[in-house]
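Input record (one chain):
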Amino acid sequence: MRKIMIIGGVAGGASVAARLRRLNEQDEITIIERGPHVSFANCGLPYYIGDEIKDRDKLLIQTPELMNDRMNINVRTNTEATQINPDNKTVVLKTEHGVEEASYDILILSMGARAIEVPIEGAKQSHVFTLRNIPDMDKIKSYINKRNVKTASVVGGGFIGLEMAENLHALGIDVTLFELGNQVMPGMDKDMTKLLEAHMVQKGVNLKLNSSIKKINEKSVIAENGEEILSDMVIMAIGVVPESTIAEVAGIETGVKGAIKTNDVFETSIKAIYAIGDVAEVTHKISEQDVHIPLAWIANRQGRLLADHLNGKQIEKVKPIGTAIAKVFDLNAASTGLNERTLKAQGLDYRVVHVSGQSNATYYPGAEPMTIKALFSPEGKIYGAQIVGRKGVDKRIDLIASAMTFNQDIRRLSEIEIAYAPPFSSAKDPVNMVGYIAQNVIEDDMKLIQYDEINHYKQIIDVRELIEHEMGTIKGAKNIPLGTLRNRLDELDKNMPVAIFCQVGQRGYNAARILQNNGFNVVNLDGGYKHYKAMYEKVNPPEVKAVEQVQNEKITIKEQLMKNEDRRVIEASGLQCPGPILKVKENMDEMKDGEQLEIHVTDFGFCTDIEAWAKNTGNTMISNETKDGKVVAVVQKGNNLPVNVLNDKDGHQLVETKNGATMVVFSGDLDKALASFIIATGAASYGKEVTMFFTFWGLNVIKKPGVTVVKEGLDKMFSKMMPKHAGQLPISKMNMGGVGARMIRHVMNKKKVDSLETMIEKAQSMGVKMVACTMSMDIMAITKEELIDGVEYGGVATYLGDTEQSNLNLFI
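The corresponding structure, as predicted from the sequence alone:
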């Protein structure tokens, strides 16, 4: 008989204990668990908090009593292992009754991981929480219920942070999410997480990237930039590190992030001591490097294999690829293998393809869009994949992960025979399409370029339809729809490379084939304009139209008060762009001014598309929201809102009052720019809706520091002659070669007057709308990349539209 002690009774610990008993009745098995529970579903904790899981007991997979009665396993909860003595094979245990020492023949360490703690002022208060176990969950749930929580801050944009943001939001709590990096879900690439970030913003999450908090007050948090945000509670979800302190003190060797190093049979550097689960280091199957991957599947698999080894079975050590999935509101995000950042860091040559597909046949109701990103070597080895979509994401990531597990070439994905029927898939499943496109890249030398490369090309062709082109395109692109391309080849220069793009890549591929067969040097934009737009477009919460009460109190227009009896309703679920917009146009062409159209779409990108279309075509957005997994938008033909839409509590019609402020910022002088922002922030503080329209020299005011864009010819000359950013603006009088500007900045600093850069940030935080004139940008050779984040783009119609609701108009 062997005395086997397991420290840690969740996931790996419970798994190895159960398998040990099934294989051997003689061993004395003891589980030491610091908390009150063993074998609980810690991945389900956020969903119980958000009331998605109603029954708390369902999170308890096993109880100490059941493990004792059914498996003859001695489970000691509320018992903490404080010291390991390898020389005499004992462990010091701390219980509610005191301290004792227990012996072992074999010791298994499965302590898991603990939440990362950072030194933030106020982090020890009672309304600041982490979430790792059942007691943590109970404290959060109780606090929300007892304190009537209305606002919350979540710190960290990983799995737990996003799941908590969603579940708090589901309870009606206003959520601000802080992420120190420039993206959520750090295990994925930025071009895929942008889809998640846009969706979260549309859902109403106040997303703060490149930001964290420096102080926690009783009812608010203070961000690093000084912004104060109301917050009744704070969830710290920065990440986890292995709970390996006790092992390190005992002299056991550790590696990445302090995770315990083990050999091929999970044994540590000290004989008879083993480690599995989140506390242990693993070797990644693709990179062959030692890593720390805290995932439940790995822990459970390791537990089974270790039990087999301890009972004389031959095993092969787990080499995981890191397959994971998370629910983010209505979207699902999954990844497997290595991301692009890791491949670059390791110096590996790789190729990328993006595939836009549907969860099932588009003609069958319920088809949902998804985007797949696949990474592979020039020879076809699959390095990794990422998928974002609403339905069927798990099925597709599992197919790709299986192929990677069994070392399949990416081209073999096209050979997978997927169960096909219209409700479940397409005859050419998105995973099959990944294989086909990868084959084109590897064997047919189909040249793909990424979103950040196309602007370097001088001959760019948009092969989408005219209506798509008019809704937005890449600067300098010429519109030649695919159906007309063969007849317009003489409009292209054969001596110059041609960059092609469409909405998602398919038409671009067909266009590239046509041009290749006619002797052109052509590249196709991977992922199309949809992917390009997602990377460069700032996403704001959906616009809501509003009117003002006579007391200047804003009231949002409620859809139910505006609903016409004859509203036309159309279904466009499953259609990809431009399908939904074309349906809108076809129906609106048949309608009269004042009539309304309601459209249901499954592509979340439609939220921004319909806003832009309505604005550009002179129609009115009534509502634009996501519900039940769809975008539901209501558009009214024409600009006039229905009469008698809003009434006060006595049934009297409310009178619309203009309370906006607009200004044209034409000057690029420092003093005039200061005056502009002083007036703008002052007007915003009075509750006015402020629009600043930057044109010609005024564009220099909103340039971003430190950005260099390669230009040629006159564009290059313009760039050299103009200020690089707001910090280099001259003053209109007594500039004296820049000395005057430096003097006025010095005086402002001495008098504690905010700098222009600070004024710009404050204006943005107060909701001041900044619009860059696209026509002036073209003339002045200024690109979107050179302007600060948060700026919108438009023409004079945008400005004039805002002046209609303004009672203050200035030209500076």
